Amino acid sequence: MNSPFTPGIAASRLSQDDLAENFTDLHAPLDAHEAAVAADRCYFCHDAPCITACPTDIDIPLFIRQIATGTPEAAAKTIFDQNILGGMCARVCPTEDLCEQACVREMAEGKPVEIGRLQRYATDTVMDKGVMPFNRAEPTGHKVAVVGAGPAGLSCAHRLAMLGHDVTIYDAKPKAGGLNEYGIAAYKSTDDFAAREVEWLTSIGGIEIKHGFTLGDNLSIDELTGCFPAVFLAVGLGGVNALSIDGNDRDGVEDAVDFIETLRQADDLSSLPVGRNVVVIGGGMTAVDAAVQSKLLGAETVTIAYRRGRDAMSASRYEQDLAASHGVKLMFNVQPVAVHGNGAAVALELEYTATTDGKLSGTGETIRLPADQVFRAIGQTLTTDAGLELDGRKIAVTDTGRTSRKGVWAGGDCAAGGDDLTVTAVAEGRDAAMDIHATLMEGA
Question: Which of 127, 208, 233, 283 has the fewest other C-beta atoms within 10 Å?
Answer without folding.
Answer: 208
